[in-house]
Specification:
single chain; Elongation Factor Tu (Ef-tu), domain 3; Rossmann fold; 5-stranded parallel beta sheet; 8 helices; 11 strands; globular; EC 1.18.1.2; nucleotide-binding; nucleotide binding
């Protein structure tokens, strides 16, 4: 291999969440690839449908997998007219997928001082980074309460929902819930479908009118809350404005903040 910027990995599992729309891919992991929960990788494929051709198309994908897990997992939407995601969705076990050697991104919990509430607000596949963060035990030790909000259009798009709901029963996480049954608050929200016990509106609307705090049973108080945003650009722009008006600010020049943002495309 002449290009030393990437490694060739092998697909070990493909899962379809919504046919022709949402899928996950698991691949092997190079032993030297280290990352922090919440970071993303540049993933490559060749332009031609030739397995051994050099990768020339590259896209950024957050790791769903935790830093301690042996493989890498990525969650993606299919962009029908796209050059990359439809090809990635057609991968099968044994096919190659190329990963750049260095991870990227700053949507990591070390952006915040420990303590208080960690709010993880996502739309669509922006959930990816938060799954990595939640699969990392360090997150559960660092904050008193974790509030995960996942905004989608329909209930079918609530990928990983069963895993999130099952976290309370995991042996590794059970002690946290014995101390506080609401250690993790999970709010799945669909804008086009009513879900039991959940408000039906855009995430930013729920921030603006206070229903998000009501549903979570916690306040978006900049003195206590740390907020991560990951999703589509329109949501990020509106949410940043709403939260900024409440006193939430990104960290700068060594000063810890209480807001971290990742534009998901």
């Amino acid at each position: 291999m002449t290009d030393t910027k990437y490694t060739r990995q092998t697909v070990t599992h493909v899962h379809t969440w919504v046919p022709d729309k949402l899928f996950s891919v698991r691949v092997t992991r190079d032993p030297s690839f280290d990352f922090k929960a919440g970071q993303f990788a540049r993933v490559g494929l060749p332009e031609a449908d030739t397995p051994d051709a050099a990768p020339t198309l590259w896209r950024a994908y957050s790791m769903v997998s935790a830093p301690h897990e042996p493989g890498l997992e990525f969650y993606s939407i299919v962009v029908p007219e796209g050059l990359f995601s439809p090809r990635m969705a057609r991968l099968q076990v044994g096919d190659p997928l190329y990963i750049e050697k260095n991870p990227f991104g700053f949507l990591t919990i070390d952006r915040f001082p420990p303590g208080g509430d960690l709010w993880l607000l996502a739309t669509g596949t922006g959930l990816s980074a938060y799954l990595s963060i939640l699969r990392d035990p360090a997150t559960w030790h660092s904050f008193e309460r974790i509030i995960l909000v996942h905004g989608v259009r329909t209930a079918a798009e609530l990928a990983y929902r069963d895993e999130i709901l099952a976290w309370q029963g995991r042996p590794g996480f059970a002690p946290f819930f014995q101390q506080d049954p609401r250690k993790l608050v999970y709010l799945p929200i669909a804008t086009r479908e009513a879900l039991p016990g959940a408000p039906q509106a855009r995430l930013t609307t729920l921030i603006a009118d206070g229903r998000l705090e009501q549903a979570a049973g916690a306040a978006l108080d900049p003195e206590r809350a740390k907020v991560m945003l990951c999703g589509n650009p329109a949501m990020l722009a509106d949410a940043r404005k709403l939260l900024g008006e409440r006193g939430f600010k990104p960290g700068r020049r060594g000063i810890p903040g209480n807001l971290a943002v990742e534009n998901y495309w």
